[in-house]
Amino acid sequence: MPFDLASTCGGFLLGAITGAAGTYYADKFTDQRRKQEQKHETNQAFAAVCKQLPELIAEMIEDLTREPHVRDFSVLPKGAMLGEARPLPLNYLQMTIELMGV
Asked: Taking the mean position of all CA atoms in its chain, how far away is CA 39?
């Protein structure tokens, strides 16, 4: 069987393309799965908060419907203010239409 440079190069390129495509799609679908898992965990946490603090959630929903330009609430430690010189650990509770239905 004689050495054929064209078929060897073609086989190498085909293998490289197949490997690159496999890696690309594996990474893509893994990222999608991670996003879905994170979204599910966030939804579960929000549902737990809704069960524990229904009055607060109802007040927040009322505030959001009354002020349509407000998109999120900042939950800060007591006495803390936004814009302080020192960095504050801020947790953002993002209210979306999807989560408000929980």
From this structure: 6
Degrees, nearest 5: CA angle 93-33-73: 5
- To which H or E segment does residue 36 belong? helix 5-52
Q: What is the pLDDT of residue 84?
A: 54
Cα dist. 7→15, 19, 37, 58, 72 in Å? 12, 18, 44, 69, 60
The strand ranges marked E within 1-102 are 72-75, 91-94
Number of other CB atoms surrounding residue 94 within 10 Å:
10
> pLDDT tens-digit profile of 37-89?
988 988 888 888 888 888 888 887 887 788 777 666 666 677 766 765 554 44
Cβ-contact 94, 71 below 8 angstroms: yes
Place of tokens 């594996």: 26
Q: Which amino acid is at 82?
A: L
